[in-house]
Each structure stands twice: as C-alpha cells, then as structure tokens.
Write a structure and sequence with these properties.
This protein has 73 residues and is mostly helical. It is built from three helices and no strands. It is elongated.
Length: 73
C-alpha cells in the first residue's frame, strides 16, 4: 500500500503544481493566453472549473499526505 500512495503523492504533486501555474495571475496563466475573455461581473467558466479542479486535487493531496504519515508512523 505504501508504494502506491508514494507514487500517487508524486503524481498529485506534479498535477497540483501544473494546476497552480495555469492560473497564477490575472495577466498570466490561462487568462494571459487568451482562453478566457474578460467578463464584467466575474470569472469565466474555464477559470471557475480550473479553480474547482485545483481545490479537489489539493484536498486529495492533503488526504494522501495524512495517509502516508499514518503508514510511516
């Protein structure tokens, strides 16, 4: 079980890094590449979905970290 969680941790860390870099600022990331038009009242659906996906991956990363801690303890 430990090797599976360790490999998953590495994959999740790369995924989390990539997701954070995708929306790093207002003029960079997806917004700077032209994928999201400037809307008047909020964020575009792509930015919202990217944020949701980042949160989900972050929560899974945290849960996996706790699981690894308990296995190694």
């Amino acid at each position: 079980m430990l090797p599976v969680l360790a490999i998953l941790q590495v994959l999740l860390s790369f995924a989390l890094l990539a997701l954070v870099l995708l929306h790093s600022g207002r003029d960079t990331g997806l917004a700077g590449m032209g994928f999201t038009p400037q809307s008047q009242g909020g964020t575009h659906i792509v930015e919202r979905n990217l944020t949701r996906l980042t949160v989900v991956v972050g929560v899974v990363f945290f849960a996996n970290t706790v699981a690894l801690y308990h296995l190694l303890d």
